[in-house]
Design goal:
By secondary structure, the chain is an alpha+beta fold. It has two helices and ten strands. The chain is globular and about 35 Å long. It starts with a helix and ends in a 15-residue tail after the last strand. One of its GO terms (molecular function) is small molecule binding. Residues 1-16 form the signal peptide.
């Protein structure tokens, strides 16, 4: 009997230490705007940088087995639209080839906030990047603090956070990026 009780306690202790529940797919799909971006190599995400993305719409299909992204990137001074469908790989990671090889994860989602983490390998260096997106045009102070925590956990300095929403709007918003 003591062995059964000990096993039950061990199972409960282990269960309490598991990683948090997976991302709720019902919260992912919809209109999202990139508010903040941060990177350990900030050159990649500054205005005009190759990985400064302006997210617009995200679709999560089949329990996020497929993730569709609609976003803009400013290339050579021109705003260009991209639409990509990514297939989930082992560990909840998605792969996209864009300015190198990118391994992407959704690391946080709530009603108003979605955060991507990805690592970009451009053939010379691996850059860690986060993108904080909102359903509106800003984060609350609590959401910004959560975003900063997520950056710190991944070794991305918070002084490398860039306010993306300040650089203008994409063509689907009736104005062009500055």
């Amino acid at each position: 009997m003591k062995v059964v009780l000990l096993n039950l306690v061990l199972v409960l202790v282990c269960a309490a230490q598991e990683t948090p529940a997976e991302i709720d797919p019902s919260k992912v799909t919809g209109e999202w705007r990139t508010i903040y971006s941060a990177a350990d190599n900030k050159e990649k995400i500054v205005e005009g940088g190759p990985l400064r993305c302006y997210n617009r719409h995200i679709e999560c299909d089949n329990d996020c087995e497929h993730l569709s992204l609609a976003f803009y990137v400013k290339i050579d001074g021109r705003c260009q639209f991209f639409s990509e469908e990514l297939k989930r790989q082992e560990g909840g990671v998605y792969f996209i080839e864009f300015a190198g090889e990118n391994y992407l994860q959704i690391i946080h989602v709530s009603d108003n906030m979605l955060v991507f983490y990805y690592e970009n390998d451009d053939g010379e260096k691996i850059t860690k990047i986060t993108e904080g997106c909102a359903r509106g045009t800003s984060f609350t102070q609590e959401e910004l603090q959560k975003y900063q925590e997520l950056n710190s956990e991944r070794g991305i300095p918070n002084e490398n956070i860039d306010n993306v929403i300040e650089t203008g709007k994409a063509p689907d918003d009736d104005t062009y990026l500055k």
